[in-house]
Description:
By secondary structure, the chain is α+β, with helices and mostly antiparallel strands. It has helices at 12-22, 30-38, 84-98, 113-121, and strands at residues 2-6, 42-49, 52-60, 67-75, 103-109, 125-130, 140-146.
Amino acid sequence: MALILPATLSDLDALVALEHELFTSDRIPRRQFRYLLTRANSVAVKIEQEGKLAGYLILLRRRRSQNLRIYSIGISTWARHLGYGRELVSFAEQFARENTLRYVTLEVCEQNIGAIKLYERTGFQRHGEKPGYYEDGCNALCMRKEIFPKDTAQ
């Protein structure tokens, strides 16, 4: 059974190693991971199976914003197709609900078809594009999911 737990500084080495496993560009550097794990307006969680890191999720929330941003999400290659990505996206949506936020937003490389399909299956809609957004020149597809209608969000 997989568990979603807060990611802490004791997870730093494992998170950096997973980042290097998953990405060839736009990697989160160790220093930035450390910052994201300790700053007040970010939420970092990990998903573990039998004590082994299967993935992570980092959420960002700006003060006075109605949006929750999925800043980064990663699932280890051995843990793909086990539903862990969906569980982490559900965690983000639940966090947004609990904080009465209007949208969950994200950017994803337009070539990452698997991730795009996951986001669309979970109710995200395309709402823009950022040309050349990633270091490797890939365009970012901007996606969002409405959690609360405008009149009920904070």
